[in-house]
């Protein structure tokens, strides 16, 4: 694994602290840094760390710009399960960021146009300096699902049953989980200057094994395309590393 940097921490809390410190250091160096951001369970403690750092005067978000990976189709930004709402409530409402400088794709209206706008936002005034990523149990990054092909541009993705099942925990029932989403494509993710993937938990072990223990790139595990990037960073805890066999 010549290019990818692997960080193994004592536990998930430390993983999240390390990720937040990397973001803090980037913004210290580049106050108007552009961050690619993720939703889901994994980044929540990372965002908590960033909020605390902001409150303690360790990070100034006033010039920071952000673009998010994805949004459910059919959910308006005021819907509690929308990713815009997630970002506002888990991060943006608690830091000194200018919300006009944050972008989460719209889940309503013309989805094809919304995907095209997301692609434009990815490159607007420069590509993301850092792209935070979680990973699906099936290896998806953003909502680029495992399958027989991947898509380069931002696009509409039909979520797999594995993803719908995994995300049902955020909804009242499985039936409420949207089945389609707008997602940044593989090009957008790989264009960032530093993809930063954080993973924890046994459910991620197979996907992380595929990412870290061989040189194979496969659409059946989209995360493996990060092997093509010269500056990707992966943070996992010791427990997951042991499960993966590293
Ligand atoms: C979220 C996203 C997804 C999640 C992945 C893992 O914006 O793009 O790829 O990162 O589904 O989700 P969690 O962290 O909930 O396990």
How is this structure best described in words?
- The chain is of the alpha/beta class and 246 residues long.
- The chain contains eight helices and ten strands.
- It has helices at residues 12-29, 44-55, 83-90, 111-123, 161-167, 186-191, 205-212, 238-244; strands at residues 5-9, 34-37, 65-68, 70-72, 102-103, 130-133, 155-158, 180-183, 195-199, 233-237.
- The chain has a seven-stranded parallel β-sheet, sandwiched between helices. The protein has a three-stranded antiparallel β-sheet with strand order 4-8-7.
- β2, α2 and β3 (65-68) form a beta-alpha-beta unit.
- α7 crosses α8 (238-244).
- The longest helix is centred in the first third of the chain and has 18 residues, at 12-29.
- The model has no long low-confidence stretch (mean pLDDT 97).
Portion in helices: 25-40%
Q: How would you name the oligomeric state of the polypeptide chains in this document?
A: single chain
Span between N and C termini? 12 Å
Which ions, cofactors or small ligands are bound in this entry? fructose -6-phosphate
Give the spatial strand order of the biggest sheet: 1-10-9-6-2-3-5
- The strand count comes to 10
- Element-by-element helix/strand order: EHEHEEHEHEEHEHEHEH
Number of helices: 8
Largest sheet: 7 strands, parallel
The Cα radius of gyration reads 17 Å
Classification by helices and strands: alpha/beta
User: Strand content of the residues, in percent?
Assistant: 15-25%
């Amino acid at each position: 694994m010549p290019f990818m940097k692997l960080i193994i921490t004592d536990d998930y809390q430390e993983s999240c602290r390390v990720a937040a410190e990397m973001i803090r250091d980037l913004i210290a160096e580049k106050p108007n840094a552009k961050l690619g951001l993720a939703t889901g369970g994994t980044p929540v403690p990372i965002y908590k760390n960033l909020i605390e750092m902001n409150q303690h005067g360790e990070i100034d978000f006033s010039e920071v710009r952000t673009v998010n990976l994805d949004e459910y189709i059919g959910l308006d930004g005021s819907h509690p399960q929308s990713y815009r709402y997630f970002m506002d409530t888990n991060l943006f409402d608690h830091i000194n960021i200018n919300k006009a400088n944050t972008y989460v794709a719209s889940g309503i209206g013309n989805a094809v146009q919304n995907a095209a706008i997301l692609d434009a936002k990815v490159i607007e005034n420069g590509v993301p300096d850092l792209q935070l990523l979680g990973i699906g149990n099936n290896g998806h990054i953003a909502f680029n699902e495992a399958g027989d092909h991947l898509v380069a541009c931002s696009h509409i993705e039909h979520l797999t049953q594995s993803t719908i099942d995994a995300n049902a925990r955020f909804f009242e029932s499985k039936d409420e989980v949207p089945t389609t989403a707008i997602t940044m494509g593989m090009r957008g993710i790989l264009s960032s200057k530093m993809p930063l993937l954080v993973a924890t938990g046994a459910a991620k072990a197979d996907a992380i094994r595929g990412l870290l223990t061989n040189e194979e790139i496969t659409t059946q595990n989209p995360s493996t395309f990060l092997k093509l990037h010269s500056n990707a960073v992966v943070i996992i805890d010791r427990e997951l590393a042991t499960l993966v066999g590293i």
